Amino acid sequence: MTREKNNLNIHTTSTPIPSTLPLNKNKFTLSTKELTELAKKLRRHVITMIATAGSGHPGGSLSAADIIAVLYFKVMRYDPQNPQWPERDRFILSKGHAAPILYAALAESGYFSVEELTTLRKLNSRLQGHTDRTTTPGVEMSAGALGQGLSFGIGTALAARLDARDYQVYVLLGDGECDEGQIWEAAMAAAHFKVDNLVAIVDHNKQQLDGWTQDIMNLEPLTEKWRAFNWNVIEIDGHNINQIQQALEEAKTIKGKPSVIIAHTIKGKGVSFMENNIDFHGKAPTPEQAELALRELS
Ligand SMILES: Cc1ncc(C[n+]2csc(CCOP(=O)(O)OP(=O)(O)O)c2C)c(N)n1
Ligand SMILES: [Mg+2]
């Protein structure tokens, strides 16, 4: 496939949300409607990036868009001018193949330019197909091998305790990723050590690489499993901005145990022909499909 073929002339302008939001160490002041629009904008970036690269993972990026929009533009405190700010909240994308949605949020937050997004997966780009904390500002963990982010999150959260800092750690897990034994070792450890500045979010889109989770490895009853591991469990619609925000706020108030948010989502959410279509777990849209997707997301 030649690069010219994928050199889409697609623009992602729409809602006039400033690319670099003012640094606010508490909360941003976007309304629910603005957050909804922002999530749509992040989805448009995902489509453009992956279509331009000619490869990538749209499905699990789109399912996480609303969660990531609320985290980055309502809940988390951070400073794009100072990515290593010690007091920053940490977002750990354990399902590293969903890197495009994280890059979109980081660009819109001001860590790097929105223009850089179309360098996704190119040689020498800072934005590789899976996250790399050594090259991308704002990326906390190198991921791609599933199953490790919750363990990494525990260490990061315990470091806050040792350093007497009050930051929160958010770990986004895939539901297929929960097949990994390491997730459940980490779940036990987090509860045992009462890591209450840790919030796991399961992007429960019911699909994994090549099929439905219930056929490949049935996770149910998922909420009861986390409860049995002594976690505070919150179950929400992962595309409902208000529910996401409320769940994240509630999680912050729970002391003495970690919280997990089971977010019911749809893989490929926002693009009709990608929704629940396993073909788009790890496949780029053609230029024509990308145009169609961007029209739907406009
Ligand atoms: C340890 C490991 N095994 C297998 C893979 C290959 N792989 C990449 S994505 C994926 C499916 C993940 O499904 P899920 O966690 O549900 O992610 P989502 O549906 O959000 O894309 C698999 C098996 C991997 N990246 N790492
Ligand atoms: Mg999944």
Outline of the structure:
With 298 residues, the protein is an alpha/beta fold. Helices cover 37% and strands 10% of the residues. Helix 6 links the parallel strand 2 (169-174) and strand 3.
Describe the structure in your own words.
This protein is of the alpha/beta class and 298 residues long. The protein has one domain: 3-Layer(aba) Sandwich (Rossmann fold), CATH 3.40.50. 37% of the residues lie in helices and 10% in strands. It has 10 helices and 5 strands. Strands 1-2-3-5-4 form a 5-stranded parallel β-sheet, with helices on both faces. Strand 2, helix 6 and strand 3 form a beta-alpha-beta unit. Helix 1 packs antiparallel against helix 10. The longest helix is centred in the N-terminal third of the chain and has 22 residues. The protein is globular and about 50 Å long. The N terminus is likely disordered. Magnesium ion binds next to loops.
